[in-house]
Amino acid sequence: MIRDFSSFPNKLFLDDKECDPVFNNSLFGTRDQEWRSLRYRLSPVFTTGKLKGMLPLIGECGERLERHLEKISNENVEVTDVLSRYSTEVISSCAFGVKCDCFQKKVSEFQHYGKKIFPKDTIGLIKNISYIFVHSVAKFFKFSLLNQSGVKYFRKVFKEVLNQRMTQSTRRNDFVDLLLDLKRQEEKHEIFGLDDERMLAQAIPFFAAGLETTATIVSFALHELSLNSAIQDRLRQEIQSVVNNYEVISYQALEEMKYLKMVILGIIFTIF
């Protein structure tokens, strides 16, 4: 794959920015030299140092989750729903720089449109299959891979956040800030400029791809731990031991939780 990479840079998706301008401007949808340029410029966004900068944002979401769990401790709850709310909180904070209050509302707008962004009904599945495998049909009917009402909502939110960052000079070290840093660093003669629409095209897949996967993996992990008390006890001991050495759960603390990593990887291998 490395030696012959020049034969594999393009995905199966329809390459038509008129059908779906957001997806086809994202790292998942671009092709050839455009993809190479975009990937080269986005790679520094996901370095260890940049991810460390987002950890305080994740910690704030964890504190809100803890308060919510204390509030519903005497109730029967759907764990997947709670974790879906938590993952929405984390990704909306890290990707869009907004607090969506998923634990305070029955259904937040972010959660609602996040679940809609990849259609799961019959018509949506037909569109998706056409977009991937039957390009002529998708092109003729102007099918889009992403739900356009969801795209419209996230475009509005993203533009509001961009305007706020540009006018108030606020900084959170989230995905929006990192994209703005890239935009400022660009030279004017770049062929593929990182404009607002292209930045949105990176943020939406980042949000959508992490929403269901995070909730699903953690749900399966909790289920398996409930069935295997010995593993649960060993994992709890490791977490308590590491946390006692740190005032807060830092990136270094997470790196020391080797058994936690083994458990999560085991769940991922089981699911996928």
Percent of residues in β-strands:
under 5%
CATH architecture of the largest domain: Orthogonal Bundle
CATH class type of the largest domain:
Mainly Alpha
Using the CA coordinates, give the radius of gyration.
20 Å
> Main sheet?
none
The number of strands is 0
Question: So what's the overall shape?
Answer: globular
Which percent bin holds the helix content? 55-70%
- How confident is the prediction overall: mean pLDDT? 86
CATH topology annotation of the largest domain: Cytochrome p450
Poorly predicted runs of 5 or more residues = none
- The first-to-last residue Cα distance is 21 Å
Can you tell me the number of structural domains?
A: 2
Number of continuous helical runs: 12
H/E element order: HHHHHHHHHHHH
CATH superfamily of the largest domain: Cytochrome P450
* Helix vs. strand class: mainly alpha
Organism: Photinus pyralis
Cofactor: heme
Protein name: Cytochrome P450
Subcellular location: Endoplasmic reticulum membrane; Microsome membrane
Task: Explain what this protein looks like in three dimensions.
The chain contains twelve helices and no strands. It is mainly α and 272 residues long. The chain has two domains: 196 residues, Cytochrome P450 (Cytochrome p450, Orthogonal Bundle), CATH 1.10.630; 44 residues. Helix 2 runs antiparallel to helix 3 and helix 3 packs antiparallel against helix 9. This is Cytochrome P450.
